[in-house]
Fold this sequence. Notes:
This protein is of the alpha+beta class and 435 residues long. It is built from 16 helices and 16 strands.
Amino acid sequence: MKFLSIKEAMDKGSGEVNLRGWVHRERGSNKLKFIQLRDSTNIIQCIIEKSVVGDKKFDIADKLQVETSITIKGKINKDDRAPTGFEIHVSDFEVVGESNEFPITKDQSIEFLADNRHLWLRSRKMTAIMKIRSTIFGAIDEYFRKEGFHEYHSPIFQSVQCEGGSTLFTVDYFGKKDVFLAQTWQLYAEPAIFALEKIYTIAPSFRAEKSKTSRHLTEYWHAEMEVAWAKFDEIIDHGEGLIKHMVKKVLENNKEELKTLNRDIKKLEPTVKKKFPRMTYDEAVKLLKEKCKMKVEWGKDLRTIEEDKLSDLYDIPIAVTRYPKKVKAFYMKEPEDSDPKKPVVNGVDFIAPEHYGEIIGGSERESDIKKIQKRLEEDGEDPKEYEFYMDTRRYGSVPHGGFGLGVERIIAWVCGLDNIKDAIPFPRTMIRYKP
């Protein structure tokens, strides 16, 4: 017996079909039973008539509950009155797996749904998000491979910090306490550009930020790239190109999922069509003062509130560059024209529209060993622990740079989600580590 997906059955449009899936909704009388059958592709209405399947089978049908898995045989035909435009008149069916009192009903709290995440994944909302997530991951691969990048992997267990010691997860590594979960691949990626030149990865990263906001996860997926011989503008170009490619692919492949999520595609289309604005930190501070009546003291990092105000001025992502040196990481390059009194670095943050915050952070990398050592000491780090990293500057160093993209933040923005926790199947936060 050949089974079709619901989408394939709809494409067929008429005739005999065999389907399998789960009961999404059910209702009926003593003669008719209406089942909304769902699979990974769609939902379709199925009509089970007592006069067709017989008394014994109809008694079974009458007891079907939500999330029971079944196979169905019947004739499909178009019917505009049906929820998705087609219905199946069932000639026979079989119960594969029973479901008794599925715990998730229409009215449940956010906390209850989080506790039952393993079941909530079956919802139309989560199914749509996970399909868009899949498209975005595929688009990242496609973009970098088309640009000549090699996929490269770095260790999850690391002995040095890259993004600040306060956000490190310490691991008991066979009794050793100076081992951490990766915040980023970067320090282990830079050595590889001297062999492969252009590299990328998609891997989990871990940040022990004590944050309960709608934008933070303690475990998230990180798309990162590093490229040799690159100037700062080239790094920014790749960031813009990648964002455009991801959004373009979702608009091409996930119209139905965006519709399920009530996402207005008109809010996404400008990202594909327009060139992203680029401004320095100084220009952003000036813009905030003039357009938003917000005064930012020079040298302060842009907080969520400032990023949101900037995003209100544009319908596409913006790239903010040349941040004050003191608010950025030790590996970011200080340009030659940097003012000694107000030193800046060639760092860039891409800020998404609609209050979704920073989605990419990147930079040109510092090549001067002495400057790197000084910054590490200022951060309270022992430069001797970074000798392997210093070697990348001692032996044939070249201009290079890269960036990291928080994939869940992109997903949250593209899907129009209220909370980043819905952008990943099983979110990990400061207060939640199960199921």
